[in-house]
Amino acid sequence: MSFRRALALAACGLAGGSVLFSAVAVGKQPARGGDAEPRPGGSAAAVPPASAAPAGTGGYWDSNWDRREPLALINLKKKNEETGEEELASRLDHCKAKATRHIFLIRHSQYNLDGRADKDRTLTPLGREQAELTGHRLASLGLKFDQIIHSSMTRATETTEIISKHLPGVKKISTDLLREGAPIEPDPPVSHWKPEAVYYEDGARIEAAFRNFIHRADAKQEDDSYEIFVCHANVIRYIVCRALQFPPEGWLRMSLNNGSITHLVIRPNGRVALRTLGDTGFMPPDKITRT
C-alpha cells in the first residue's frame, strides 16, 4: 500500500471517529473554501466542503468571523447590471481592510482581595509596582499607541493610570463592557466556582465587548494601529478563545499573571495570530503574582 493511500485511509478513519469538542456558543459556521494557503508549486490546497467536517468541531476557519469580509458588506441585489463585474470588483476593493490591528490585552495588577465593594478593591503596593513595570515594558516597545481602553472597575482604572504615565499623550477610554464577569460555563466544569446565575448576564456583555472591540481594521484605516485594553483575566481568556476560533468554553484552561501582556494581531484579511499570551517575562520573579 502506498504512503499516500495509507494517509488517505487514516484521514477517513479520523473523520469518522467520535468528536467531543463543544460548538462555539455564537453559532460560528465553518468557512467554505476561498481561504486556502498556496502551496509551493503555486496551486491552492484543496479545502474540503463544510459538510465533510463533523458537526461542532470548529475545524475550519471562518473568514467572516467578524462580519467584515468584503463580500458580506455588499448588497449583491443592488448590483448594476450594466457595469456588472467591474462595479462589483470596485465595491469589493472599497470594503477591503488595508491595515493591521495590534491588540494588547493587559490584565490589571494585584489588588486588595478583602475589599467588599469595587471601590475598596484598590491596587496593593506590589500591584502598583507591577503596573509600573508593565507601563515601562509597553513604552520600551517603541510603538505609537493609538488609545488605551480600560474596564471601569477600580483595579483596572488604577492600573491604567499608572501605565499611562509611561505613554504620555495616549488617550484613555473607560467602558463597562470590559468589566470582570463569568463569560460562559467552563468545560471541564469546576465545582468550587459555578455562578450559573451570572453567565446569562455577564456572558452577553463580554461577548458584546468582543464584537465591539475585536475585529479587523475599518476599510478607511490607512495605517497599522496599536491599541491597549486593560481589563480582567476572564475577559482576556474568553477574547483569546473567540479570536482564535477555539471553543470558548475552554477559557478557564488558561492562566494569566497580574500585569501580564497578551498580544493579538488581526490582519486585513481577517487572519488572527496570538503573539504572546500572559507575558510577564519583563518582571523580576519576586514581583509576579496571579491573584
Explain the overall architecture:
By secondary structure, this protein is α/β, with parallel strands linked by helices. It is 27% helix and 13% strand. The protein contains 6 helices and 6 strands, in the order ααβαβαβαβαββ. It has a 6-stranded mixed sheet, sandwiched between helices. Strand 5 and strand 6 form a beta hairpin. The longest helix has 18 residues, at 196-213. The protein is globular, with a radius of gyration of 22 Å. Mean pLDDT is 82; it is low at 1-57.
Give unreliable regions as ranges.
Answer: 1-57
Oligomeric state of the chains in view: single chain
Element order, helices and strands? HHEHEHEHEHEE
* Strand content range: 5-15%
- N-to-C span: 56 Å
The total of helices stands at 6
Set down the secondary structure blueprint.
Layout: H1 3-15, H2 85-95, E1 101-107, H3 125-140, E2 147-151, H4 154-164, E3 171-175, H5 196-213, E4 225-231, H6 233-243, E5 261-266, E6 272-279
Parallel strand pairs: 1-4, 2-3, 2-4
Antiparallel strand pairs: 1-5, 5-6
Question: Which characteristics define this entry?
Answer:
291 residues; alpha/beta; six-stranded mixed β-sheet; 6 helices; 27% helix
